[in-house]
Amino acid sequence: MSNKIFSGLIILGSIIGIAVFFDGCHAEDDQQKNVLTSTASLKSEWIAPDSNSIPQSEEGALIRYGRELIVNTTEYLGPNGKIRHQSNGMNCQNCHLAAGTKPWGNNYGSVYSTYPKFRERRGAIETVSQRVNDCLQRSLNGQPLDTNSHEMKAMLAYMKWLGKDVEKGKKPLGTGIVQLKFLERPADQEKGKLIYISTCQRCHGPNGEGQLKPGQTTYLYPPLWGPNSYNTGAGLYRLTRFAGYVKENMPFGVDHEHEMLKDDEAWDVAAFVNSQPRPVKTFKEDWPNISLKPIDHPFGPYADSFSEKQHKYGPFGPIQKARKS
């Protein structure tokens, strides 16, 4: 596809509301594996139920409010939110694309089928509400919600409705984020910068600042670094997460069947973005057992002898090989 044709598709997508979402930063699985290997018995890719089929009932109203909170988080919970002022201005769907429904777009399809579950990062069983609050504190660099609040109940109702046809314990094909094959070299920030300039900055800005919707306080394209972006505790700050996310979803308008970037380009641009300044936030309770940290966790200490730099940018193959041995 030529750049001219692709640019036309991007413009068309923004007009009809298809290519607008980078939205919501992540339903992170700590030891992310290629979902193809964990769902071999499932034949087809997960498809979200049509939002028009949400029932016209009291429960349906709660589900619709939950969807609205995912799409327009900042309107309710942003710096000038009409409910509370407790996030950085990004929307949940800035990472969980298309209100958490896009295949391979960090969607919510398997949330209710896999939670509650043990998470290595917490070192304990984690509930869905705890996972939501993790996102608010990390990806939206804000404060947690009261788990008994109307807003939390609405978001959980929406996620549960999205996964209503998913069997308990199953993670359907197309949910989560794809794990790319590791590079045999470190991801290259300088190469990534060139890709960012040529492919990404027209939407996300030359300084990663994103673009607000005209006349609004919500993002059309979210900031990728800087004070209003996700902090260093977010799942997308891990390179394996961000590279897979970029490959399947960026630039806006691409999908699993129509990828634009090569694997190495996705790795490199992810390295460039995650090398840029952003809010620094530490969570001292994370990883009580350091031997369970993912191979790409960018902060020590580690249970191995590899450097913090290699854990952040790779190559990850030697780390994985050492762990297996």
Could you characterize what this model shows?
The chain is mainly alpha-helical. It folds into two domains: 127 residues, Cytochrome c-like domain (Cytochrome Bc1 Complex, Chain D, domain 2, Orthogonal Bundle); 130 residues, Cytochrome Bc1 Complex, Chain D, domain 2, CATH 1.10.760. It contains 13 helices and four strands. Helix 9 crosses helix 11 and helix 10 packs across helix 11.
| Overall 3D form | globular
Low-pLDDT runs: 1-42
* CATH class designation of the largest domain: Mainly Alpha
What would the average pLDDT be, to the nearest integer? 88
Number of strands: 4
Structural class, judged by helices and strands? mainly alpha
DSSP strand content: under 5%
Q: Write out the strand line-up for the largest beta sheet, numbering strands in chain order.
A: 1-2
Biggest sheet: strands, sense, closure? 2 strands, antiparallel
Rg computed from alpha carbons, rounded to a whole number of angstroms: 19 Å
Order of helices and strands: HHHHHHEEHHHEEHHHH
CATH fold title of the largest domain: Cytochrome Bc1 Complex, Chain D, domain 2
Q: In CATH, what is the homologous superfamily of the largest domain?
A: Cytochrome c-like domain
Number of domain units: 2
Count of alpha and pi helical runs? 13
Examine the secondary-structure arrangement and name the CATH architecture of the largest domain: Orthogonal Bundle
How far is the N terminus from the C terminus? 44 Å
